[in-house]
Each structure stands twice: as structure tokens, then as C-alpha cells.
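Question thread 4412

I'm putting together a teaching handout and wanted feedback from people who do this every day. The idea is simple: show students a protein as raw sequence, then show them the C-alpha cells that encode its fold, then repeat with a second protein so they can compare. Below is the first pair exactly as I plan to print it.
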Amino acid sequence: MSKTKVAVIGLGYVGFPLLCAIAKSGKYEPIGFDLSKEKIDLIKEYKSPIKDELAEKLVKEIKYEASNEPVILKNTQIFIICVPTPVDEQFDPDYGPIISAVQTVAQYIIKGSYVVIESTVNPGTCEEIVLPLLEKLTKLKAGIDFELAHCPERINPGDPKWNVLNIPRNIGALTSKGTKYLADFYRSFIDAPINEMETIKEAEATKIIENTFRDINIAYVNELAKSFDVLGIDLVNVIKGASNKPFAFMAHYPSCGVGGHCIPVDPYYLIERAKKSGFDHKFLRSARTVNNSMPEYTVNKLLMALNERSKAMKGSTIALLGLSYKRDIGDLRESPALIIRKILQKDYLADLRVYDPYNPEQSTHKTLDEVLKNVDAVLIATDHTEFREYPNEKWANVPIIIDGKNCLDKKKLLSLGLTYRGIGR
């Protein structure tokens, strides 16, 4: 394998760290392909196109080639597709990016090639969509002339511990021989167990149930938050109490919504695919409905808090803190903060200020002190460290705080005389 040419197609939050990991091993000829010239220009200057601590470090130490011209894929033995798999406005999976990537790769597949899909897909996608398309375009037979496999990505942006180099992976291919070959390939640059699945469809299903599990549990605590708000119970305190049970309980916490490219998207893949086979995932649909309702629920808490002070939302100066879906990163994908921003601006005509230190281009103010000056209320939609560590005495200058991430000290803030509302507390 020492001279095997490996191409990563799609150089975003999944693909670029993967390219770095493969290059770091020094065992392959690593190639990166992406349609974005802007990304490629950065990568050619050995700069990471994404905000990722590991990638930003490795990009300065490794050697690779990258291009937005498909010809770079010529003579590649292993193709790894890492393009986005979004859902449309009706929550149906959008296979456009994968189909486009497959069409590009097909031009360079020869006998003996390996094609790995890392993009998250619903069970059956590789065999029902990717395989027939590849066979049609290449005139080759999958499982005989070339191998098709699925190794669902596992990445956790901003995590200081878990990254592409140490997270265990699952892989399944059309043939057991192909599974073994590609599992050994991943073992050569990942220092973690690589589990060989019996079928490609089983490999596809692992990622879906991982993220659907989280979505269901988050929906459970979000619904509890609504219930406990009515009952006058602090849900966060209750969860902490329940967490001291040493078995059979896993803590999840309520918030203003679920973001990121995986949890709010992946359940729809399974819901829609099962529907085609005649099964209705009522439980999963209910969980999605609950989690999708949280941005509006959070805004309603702000509306009620303003009304308690005889103020209307329209014309009130509101500071929205945070736009990204997760703490201390700039990733905006599926962020509930974007929905909250839209509701406040378009539905309630609030005088909206925005501050996110990781998205300065979308912020209206440059500093936290500046954005909080003379506001009627604050809504925290992302629990960035800067917000969490802001001195309590400075928060005292804000009449109302709606803590959409339950990240501030409730008792201390209430003792300062301001109105504080969390989610479920």
C-alpha cells in the first residue's frame, strides 16, 4: 500500500481532517478534491479551510496535493467521498451532492479501484443509488471489477479529545474481501478499533441509530423542560440528581434547539427510507417535532419575560448571543440560533443585535460589552466560553436574560435582581 494513491472528495469538516490523517501516516499518495476554489487556494497555502484544532496543526506538517479540477483523480486506487448529505425543506434527503461526486469519481474508476462513501446516508443508499450509478457510468461490475464500501464518518468539531485519529470506526463493503482490505487501510492511519460489519447496509445503519438515539433523548428532556416550566421544577437540578445513579441513566440536557449536520438531519434519512418500505417511524417523527419546536419556545420565553415588564417585543433592543450550533466553533450548520434570529427579526420586528466571536462577519457588534450596552434583553443561543465566563456583576446591567443553553449561574443572577429564564428552569 505504500504508493497507493488515495483521493478524498469533499474537503469540509469530515474530508479535510481525513486527508490530513492519511497524509500524516506517510504511507500513501494523498489527494484532495473539492469544487470550491476558495478552499483549494487555502489548502495549497497549507492553511485549514475549516476551524479544527487538529487540522490546523497537521496542515503545516504534511504533504499532499489538492485541486478543484477532477483530473487530479486520475490513477487513484481508493476514492473516499465525504460530501454533505442535507435534507430539503420537506426534510427529504438530498442526494444531489453524493450523485455529483459519484459522477465525478466514475470517470477515473478502473478495475481494482475502491470507492468508500463516508457521507452519512440512510440504509440502502449505497446499493440502491450509488452502486447502479457507478455500474452504469463505468460499465464495470461492483463487487467484481471494483469495490464499494461505506465507512460512516465520525467527527466531533471542537472536541479536544476525540478526533479523526482516535475515534473507532465501522466499515462494510459489498464483499468480505473488500471489507477486510479497507478495514486494514483505515487501521493504517487511525489509532482506534475498526469494526468490520457484515454488510454495507449494516454499516450505513450504525451512524443513523447513533444520532437518532441522541435526538430522541434530547427530545425527551426538551419535552420535560416544557413540562417542568409549568410545574415550577428546575429540570437541570433534577437531571444532576438522577445522574448519580451509576447505571441505566445517561444525562442529556435541554436547550433552545438541536444543531449540527448530524443530529437534526440523520433521523429523517431513516424516517423517509422506512416510509418507502411501508413503515411509519412515529416515535422518531415525534422527537423531531419536539426538537424543532425549541427555537420558537425559547423566543416565547423572552416574549413573556418582556410582557412581565410591560414591554412589547416589537422595537425592544434584543442582544442575541451566539449563532453557531455548538460552543467555541464557528459552524452554523442547522443552528437553532439562525431560526431564533429569523423569528426575532421578521416575526416580532425586534431591534436585534447579534454577537458571536466565532462569526464576526455575521455579528452587528465587535465585543460582548458593546453588544450588551443599553439592551432590553439578552437571549443566549450558543454557550461560548466567553459568555459562560462573563462576570456576574456585568450581567446585572441587563434587565432580562433568556439562557437558551442553561450555561449561566441561575442563583447568582437572580440574586442581582434581574429576570432570568432558562430552558426547563
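The second pair follows. I'd like the answer to focus on this one:
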Amino acid sequence: MHMEKIPQFAWKQCLLIRSDLRMSCGKMCAQAAHAALLAYEKADTMPRRRWLAEGQKKVVLKVSGERDLYEMKVIAEAAGISAALVQDAGMTEIPPGTVTALGLGPAKSEEMDRITGSLPLL
């Protein structure tokens, strides 16, 4: 019997979304997309290339509030991982300037797991 080889992702991005804001599903998706692009743009060339080459794994996680995003940003940056907060323009569901999400990486999966491993999936 031939078993399909499961790809091993050495690199990933983690996108952290606030669960306390009660955003619609579409709004959360848009915030995650913003977070992914902003963090990617801040990342160094080598992690960007490696992550792109292996399929751009992303994991979307939830945090309970704004403070969690700031704490995770500080921890990630201290570990040398790109981090970008998303501030909403306030055109639709939430007030202008609300911090909604945090993009981390791309970075090595094991480094990311040390920082975000305790967070639940969105």
C-alpha cells in the first residue's frame, strides 16, 4: 500500500485575532489577511523565501483581548520574529484605531510554537 507523504512545514505564520470584539467572520478574515501581509513585509528575506517555497503555512489563533496582542508582539520581537499589529480604519463594524489582530512571521515552526503554542485555534 502506497502512503501519501504528508508535507512537513518548517516555516509558518501565526495570525492572532481578538475574540472579544465580536467581529463578523468576514471581518476577522480581512483582519487576518492584513496581519499576514504586514508581518510578511517586516520579515527578513531568508524566512520569507523559505516560507514561500514550502507553501506559506498560516495558523489563525485567538486571543482574549488587546493586551494579549501587545504581549505576544513583545515576546515575538524579542525572539527575532517579525510582528505587526493591525489597526482597523473603522469604516464598518468597529471604532477607528481599534487594534484587531497581530501577524507573526514567517518564522521557524518550532520557534513560533514556543510563543503561540498555548493559544486556541480560531
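Top answer:
Good format. For the second protein you could add a caption like this: The chain has a mean pLDDT of 94. The longest helix spans residues 25-42.
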